[in-house]
Design the sequence.
């Protein structure tokens, strides 16, 4: 049994929400489910996807302040950064990727058929799960096997062979609970970093960094160093990403640029426009006009 829960959204009996969209030459589907409660809030949702566009596709991927673990089922994708001198630049092909935190948008391209599942991880959860200093993954895209070893390849094989999305999401629960149970004490995030990240995330990057350091009881320099290790970006750079995401949400729901700039902590409307252009490659108006082409895949 499938129940309609909104325009283009359906919920199956086993708790999987399905979304459909017609794209050039074919269809795109997304499959969502919530992880086991023990994996939350570090992983908010599982997101399966299948694109059968039938022709090459490109999508803009905007920084989100989350780390992406994307496990693909055979088809390849390419990711390149936006910006002058980088359009058309060669990019390596990937089937699966770990994408660290980014401060600039990228373009995701594929040949029209893309199938797999993505986990968008809070950075502190990625620090635990990946067992690597997140500063080494910032502004990079790499093969998950380089970080997680053969177990992620084995998981990908099992996911691809599973008969449906409920079974795939159950496999993810099982694997991730097992992996997190094996986390070394040295890769447990600091409670101080966790609280500082929560304050920054809850305020969408509007809390002054000096105040954040004072609340942590650390110097700004020490907070920066610990954030690079356990979050991936300094608080200041992460705050830029969080402010951008809040501005996108407010503008997309009809907020005026001047009011959104003030609400999100920008100096003025010009500052908002400069940050949009620097981080997405487009000023706000053009970005919103092209937003239907933004990718639902790949955090960062």
Sequence:
């Amino acid at each position: 049994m499938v129940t309609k829960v909104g325009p283009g959204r359906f919920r199956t009996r086993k708790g999987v929400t399905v979304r459909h969209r017609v794209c050039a030459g074919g269809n795109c589907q997304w499959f969502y489910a919530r992880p086991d409660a023990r994996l939350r809030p570090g992983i908010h949702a599982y997101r399966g996807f299948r694109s059968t566009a039938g022709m090459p596709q490109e999508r803009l991927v905007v920084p989100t302040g989350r780390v992406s673990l994307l496990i693909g089922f055979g088809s390849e994708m390419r990711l390149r950064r936006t910006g002058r001198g980088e359009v058309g630049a060669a990019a390596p092909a990937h089937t699966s990727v770990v994408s660290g935190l980014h401060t600039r948008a990228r373009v995701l391209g594929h040949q029209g058929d893309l199938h797999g599942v993505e986990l968008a991880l809070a950075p502190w959860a990625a620090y635990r799960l990946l067992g690597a200093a997140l500063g080494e993954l910032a502004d990079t895209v790499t093969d998950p096997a380089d970080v997680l070893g053969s177990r992620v390849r084995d998981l990908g094989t099992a996911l691809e062979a599973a008969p449906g999305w409920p079974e795939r999401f159950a496999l993810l629960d099982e694997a991730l609970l097992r992996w997190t149970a094996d986390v070394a004490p040295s890769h447990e995030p600091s409670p101080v970093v966790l609280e500082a990240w929560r304050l920054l995330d809850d305020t969408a990057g509007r809390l002054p960094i000096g105040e954040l350091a004072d609340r942590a009881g650390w110097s700004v320099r020490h907070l920066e160093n610990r954030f690079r290790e356990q979050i991936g970006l300094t608080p200041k750079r992460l705050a830029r990403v969080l402010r951008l995401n809040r501005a996108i949400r407010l503008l997309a729901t009809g907020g005026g640029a001047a009011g959104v700039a003030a609400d999100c902590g920008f100096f003025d409307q010009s500052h908002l426009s400069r940050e949009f252009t620097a981080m997405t490659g487009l000023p706000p108006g053009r970005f919103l006009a092209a937003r239907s082409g933004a990718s639902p895949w790949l955090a960062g």
Notes: The radius of gyration is 19 Å. The first helix runs from residue 123 to 130. The longest strand covers residues 43-52.
